[in-house]
């Protein structure tokens, strides 16, 4: 019996089978004979989930007893990936579950196929949040993730005539067996209204709308440890008072619930924007909804073991995942000053010590700002607090830099021209004890350019924490065949939680029989993926569509290769399968034109028997964590070709290198750190570096026409598009490249094509390519999210693990 006095759940297939039957009967109310596949799936999920419940209970008890410093990760997005396979792996039930299902006459693959991916994020930032939660649990760090339980996640992508179309992602329509509702911890969130001063001079916020925040959580198990943390997701519910009884009594039944329905819109849908576009009030409402409910929950948890507010920062660090949760700063001030009666100065000291901010961009247009008129209408008390913070802050700036009015204007939390807006990044820097970028180059550019004024004022506040990825999700689970080979090569599987051990593979790069097996695994992964000839070089570009990422540059290379093949009949070429995957924000027209052109080029090549033996372009729809896990293990070549100085870090680059792909890339984001580690010989470098790109861009001398006129192959590629050779599609793309192209695509074209020629040459030496592939894996252990979390823990959070014992 365990500590709860319960019979421990069995670890044999027979016991698992019994539990399946029992859960099917008592929790689904059915039997094997009449169960649908959905019944079987839900029951399997519950049975697996139960195997983590006891660990969760012990984790909560151990963490409570330790009263430690907690990490609270606030993020508007989480891309957790499918839960079933992960929870089977982490609970060690993968094998017995499959046996038990078969015993009951069920097909395990058919049942597990019903597991859906919660797409509660857009891309890199959301997946990073999930990888960090995984690593925190694996390292026994007491942590809770807070987020929003969107009813509709990131849209589903389809193609119609090569065009992206979007469909809603009602991922939780059938219910979500991984979720634990926690109605007792419901919170109340206020919006709108006005402020008043009471007799004692204290400010009161009289809100105009009341919304309930209903929490549920999902389990975040650690690997190879008993820790099971949680991610708590909030869902908006109309309050009882939003039920309009007078309308109801007057027979206006639908109108009576208008407000409640309206309130529930807050958590209805994830905004599908990547870096650009903002300004929607509902988005701001989502942000405050997340922040307000999470802070109240954090304070509730603090009070379980503590009573003195000065202890709050000792027991709490709140990491802001980009500026999306930055309203937490004025919200904590409001709670401490207005509701708890603390002095402004004490509240400000506590607040600043509590928060840390991670920035994920360099693009100035991606820095979040909100119109003051919208902000003050929605959050009338918070705007007063922001003004007060700004005043004190600007006084400090004026004292440090007397008579530097321009600096004061630049640093102000309020932008004045052309319209008054709240600058969330400025607020986030002012209200936190640490600011970090997500790769070395990015952190340097933040301090030197984007946030330079702030770094001059507070140099010690600025840090780098290079991103990392979960080796469990992206190696062990995504690539079981390679994982088995690595485990065999290293004589154990300790690498899964100690990724630096991959270095032990280096000598095996010289072992011809190991290389052969390495190739066999890659080959098998290509067969599993089932796109393109497994013997061909699999060249992948998988990421959100954005002009700065430059899918259009890859496309120019493809068209060039197409022309070379057509022009040289009878010559042989290195066969390639180029695989694109990714979504474009629905309103991002330039990105959608690129998608459409890729599909048109793919069709043209497919229809041309002279070319298709050597070149194939595939573009599976609806890229997500699940699809990435199939593609990454099959990749030979990783395309990381953003304009230098634009990609904060990238994390797909790390996943691909760890799975043995070689990178063709620019000196951007974490590419630089990957190249430093895997070695320049094992990385195909090309393109302008950041200083050269800045100079060309800002010098006003970039002339795309000049490249077009000087380079025959480039001219041919662009002319083909302009002449309508690809079903008449894509002229917008060519026009934009030849017009004012922010991303200097044509400037990098020639070095890129040359680098691709080097790739072809390298591919022809199979043994040498395999050696380099192994070295990419062996030398990429640094990019484990475990290392990232250790960096946060020691440099920013100052937290220590709490071991969960029996
Ligand atoms: C903002 C305002 C309104 C609506 C949406 C948004 C919004 C949503 C998502 C803005 C940005 C994002 C996502 C950004 C993102 O994914 N950034 C990536 O973060 C990765 C993890 O650090 C980096 O590796 C990538 O370089 C960076 O682009």
What would you say this structure looks like, in words?
With 806 residues, the protein is of the alpha/beta class. The protein folds into 3 domains: 1-66 and 83-116, no CATH class; 118-466, 3-Layer(aba) Sandwich (Rossmann fold); 472-783, 3-Layer(aba) Sandwich (Rossmann fold). 48% of the residues lie in helices and 15% in strands. The strands form 6 sheets. Strands 1, 4, 7, 8, 11, 12, 13, 14, 18 and 19 form a 10-stranded mixed sheet that branches. Strand 16 (414-415) and strand 17 form a beta hairpin. The structure holds ligand 26Q. Ligand 26Q binds at residues 122-125, 128, 271, 273-275, 278, 283, 360, 368, 438, 467, 647-651, 669.
Layout: helices, strands, pairs:
Blueprint: H1 13-26, H2 37-66, E1 70-74, E2 78-79, H3 84-91, H4 94-103, H5 108-112, E3 119-120, H6 124-138, E4 143-148, E5 156-160, E6 163-167, E7 179-181, E8 187-191, E9 194-197, E10 203-206, E11 209-221, E12 228-238, H7 245-249, H8 253-256, H9 258-264, H10 281-305, H11 312-315, E13 316-321, H12 328-339, H13 344-354, E14 355-358, E15 369-371, H14 372-378, H15 380-400, H16 405-411, E16 414-415, E17 421-423, H17 424-430, E18 434-437, H18 440-450, H19 452-457, E19 462-464, H20 471-477, H21 480-490, H22 512-529, E20 537-542, H23 551-567, E21 576-581, H24 589-606, E22 615-618, H25 625-631, E23 637-640, H26 652-658, E24 662-665, H27 671-678, E25 683-685, H28 690-698, H29 704-710, H30 712-722, H31 731-738, H32 745-764, H33 766-778, H34 785-797
Parallel strand pairs: 1-4, 1-13, 4-12, 13-14, 14-18, 18-19, 20-21, 20-23, 21-22, 23-24, 24-25
Antiparallel strand pairs: 2-3, 5-6, 7-11, 8-11, 9-10, 11-12, 15-17, 16-17
Bound molecules: ligand 26Q.
């Amino acid at each position: 019996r365990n500590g709860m006095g319960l019979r421990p759940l069995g670890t044999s297939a027979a016991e698992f089978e019994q539990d399946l039957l029992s859960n099917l009967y008592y929790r689904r109310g059915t039997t094997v004979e009449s169960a649908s596949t959905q019944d079987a799936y839900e029951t399997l999920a519950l049975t697996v989930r139960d195997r983590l419940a006891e660990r969760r209970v012990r984790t909560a008890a151990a963490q409570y007893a330790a009263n430690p410093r907690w990490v609270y990760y606030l993020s508007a997005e989480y891309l957790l990936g499918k839960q079933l396979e992960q929870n089977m792996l982490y609970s060690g039930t993968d094998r017995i579950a499959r046996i038990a299902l078969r015993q009951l006459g069920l097909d395990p693959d058919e049942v597990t196929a019903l597991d859906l991916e919660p797409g509660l994020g857009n891309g890199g930032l959301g997946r990073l949040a999930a990888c960090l939660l995984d690593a925190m649990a694996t390292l026994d760090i007491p942590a809770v993730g807070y987020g929003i339980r969107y009813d509709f996640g990131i849209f589903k992508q389809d193609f119609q005539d090569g065009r992206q179309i979007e469909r809603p992602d009602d991922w939780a329509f059938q219910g979500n067996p991984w979720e634990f509702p926690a109605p007792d911890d419901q919170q109340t969130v206020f919006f709108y209204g006005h402020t008043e001063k009471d007799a004692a001079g204290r400010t009161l916020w009289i809100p105009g709308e009341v919304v309930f925040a209903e929490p549920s959580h999902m389990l975040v198990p650690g690997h190879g440890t008993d820790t099971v943390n949680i991610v708590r997701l909030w869902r908006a519910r109309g309050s009882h008072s939003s039920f309009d009884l007078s309308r109801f009594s007057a027979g206006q039944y639908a109108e009576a619930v208008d407000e409640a329905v309206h309130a529930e819109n807050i958590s209805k849908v994830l905004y599908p924007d990547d870096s650009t576009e903002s300004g929607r009030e509902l988005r701001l409402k989502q942000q405050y909804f997340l922040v307000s409910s999470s802070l109240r929950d954090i304070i509730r948890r603090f009070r379980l073991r503590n009573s003195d507010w000065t202890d709050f920062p000792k027991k709490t660090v709140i990491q802001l995942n980009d500026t999306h949760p930055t309203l937490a700063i004025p919200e904590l001030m409001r709670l401490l000053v207005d509701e708890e009666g603390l002095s402004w100065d004490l509240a400000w000291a506590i607040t600043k010590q509590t928060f840390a901010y991670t920035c994920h961009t360099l693009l100035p247009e991606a820095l979040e700002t909100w119109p003051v008129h919208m902000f003050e209408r929605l959050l009338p008390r918070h705007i007063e607090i922001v003004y007060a913070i700004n005043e004190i802050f600007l006084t400090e700036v004026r004292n440090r830099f007397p008579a530097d009015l321009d600096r004061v204007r630049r640093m102000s939390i309020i932008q004045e021209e052309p319209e008054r807006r709240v600058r969330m990044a400025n607020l986030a820097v002012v209200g936190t004890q640490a600011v970090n970028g997500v790769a070395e180059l990015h952190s340097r550019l933040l301090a030197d350019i984007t946030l330079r004024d702030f770094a001059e004022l507070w140099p010690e506040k600025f840090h780098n924490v290079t991103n990392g990825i979960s080796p469990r999700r992206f190696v062990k689970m995504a690539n079981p065949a390679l994982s088995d080979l690595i485990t065999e090569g290293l004589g154990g599987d300790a690498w899964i939680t100690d990724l630096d051990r991959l270095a032990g593979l280096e000598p095996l790069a010289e072992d011809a029989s190991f290389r052969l097996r390495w190739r066999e695994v890659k080959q098998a992964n290509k067969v599993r993926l089932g796109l393109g000839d497994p013997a061909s070089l699999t060249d992948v570009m998988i990421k959100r569509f954005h002009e700065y990422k430059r899918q259009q540059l890859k496309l120019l290379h493809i068209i060039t290769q197409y022309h070379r093949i057509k022009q040289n009949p009878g010559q042989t070429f290195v066969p390639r399968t180029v695989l694109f995957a990714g979504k474009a924000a629905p309103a991002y027209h330039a990105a959608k034109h690129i998608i459409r052109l890729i599909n048109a080029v793919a069709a043209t090549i497919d229809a041309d028997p002279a070319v298709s033996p050597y070149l194939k372009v595939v573009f599976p729809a609806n890229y997500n964590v699940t699809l990435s896990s199939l593609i990454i293990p099959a990749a030979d070549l990783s395309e990381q070709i953003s304009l230098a100085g634009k990609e904060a870090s990238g994390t797909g680059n790390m996943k691909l290198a760890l799975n043995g792909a070689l990178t063709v890339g620019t000196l951007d984001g974490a590419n630089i750190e990957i190249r430093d580690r895997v070695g320049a010989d094992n990385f195909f470098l090309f393109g302008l570096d950041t200083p050269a790109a800045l100079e060309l861009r800002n010098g006003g001398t970039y002339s795309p026409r000049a490249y077009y006129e000087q380079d025959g192959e480039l001219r041919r590629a662009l002319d083909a598009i302009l002449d309508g050779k690809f079903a008449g599609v894509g002229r917008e793309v060519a026009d934009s490249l030849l017009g004012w192209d922010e991303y200097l695509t044509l400037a990098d074209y020639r070095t890129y094509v040359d680098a691709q020629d080097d790739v072809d040459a390298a591919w022809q030496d199979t043994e040498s390519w395999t050696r380099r592939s192994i070295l990419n894996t062996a030398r990429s252990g640094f990019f484990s999210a475990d290392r990232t979390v250790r960096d946060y823990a020691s440099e920013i959070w100052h937290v220590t693990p709490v071991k969960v014992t029996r």
